[in-house]
Sequence to fold (364 residues):
Amino acid sequence: MTDDFIPNLPAFDDAALDAAFAALEGKARADAAALDAEAFRLQWLGRKQGLLKEVSDRWLKAAPAHAKKAAGERFKVLKELVEKLAEEGAASGPGDDALRAQALDITLPGTRRLLGAEHPITRTMNEIVSVFAAMGYSVGTGPEVETDYYNFESMNLPPGHPARDTQDTLVIANQERRPLRDRLLLRTHTSPVQMRVMEQQPPPIRIVVPGKVHRNEADDATHSSIFHQVEGLCVDTNITFSDLKGTLDHAMKALFGSAVKTRFFPSFFPFTEPSADLQISCIFCGGKGCRKCKNSGWIELLGCGMVDPAVFAFAAEKQPAYDSRKISGFAFGMGPDRIAMMKYGVSDIGQFLGGDMRFLSQFA
Ligand code: DAH
Fold:
């Protein structure tokens, strides 16, 4: 595109033509000196908007019949000059100005990119996963936008079950026309992946599921509406509660040090029977009692239990081998956010998602 404008000619007599073409010739020489070869070529010879095209349109075509020959001759001379200048420019390469504009000062310091590092939650989840990987577990995954069926119903939380109230759920809008079981929500726990994996493969199963979960929580120092869980599921013949205890006791020692002790308390989850809460001896005071463990010497770490036969019955709809008369299993779920807070002395869970580099760079 050219930024110059070719005015209409006021008159077409020889004097007017000479003056107009002389002015253009001067401009062509000046442009050839100022512009690099490509810019000059575009400015003058550009097929749609080059100056020669403009001159041809405005002066030659507009010239009255008696002046056409005179204008045409002068145009031919100008065109030859422009072509010559363009050729010389291309042969001599870019001019000084053009070179200066492109120059690269290699002595300038570069733009230093910050090195990435594993997020503390990712690191904690990877540590948990590798402890179980060493015991033969593989990793399962499932969607964060989940159906009511997988998140609740198949986990033995039927519609209207009071335990649904303990997981204040964020639902996707405008699905009233769908049957309840197909309605979408943000998964409130990683447990639905138990069902997704069992539907995909018959027993035996040993999986851990690290992932993000969502609940309608008011955010404060220890609660976040977005947090994480690592789910575990082991299904085989003759799996007993002592397998659950031995596996989790080993895992806690691998994660927090071999001096850590574990103990189990009765609890309730709809998807396990019996259910338990696992506590570990306080990793700060070794069990003597301190502020962190509220002087109890123990810290509650996860929920677990033997897989409820009702859950196996849902899995058996797709995989008949989940027959609770022939197989059994245990499951557990833990919160890596809390574990990371303990491990790294983080007092506000919101820091994990805040994206503040002053916080994150401490883990680099
Ligand atoms: N899904 C439970 C929750 O979010 C955690 C949990 C408890 C998972 C016990 C389990 C389990 O697999 O056996 O509160």
The chain is about 40% helix and 20% strand. The chain has a mean pLDDT of 93. Residues 68-92 form the longest helix (25 residues). The two ends are 50 Å apart (CA to CA).
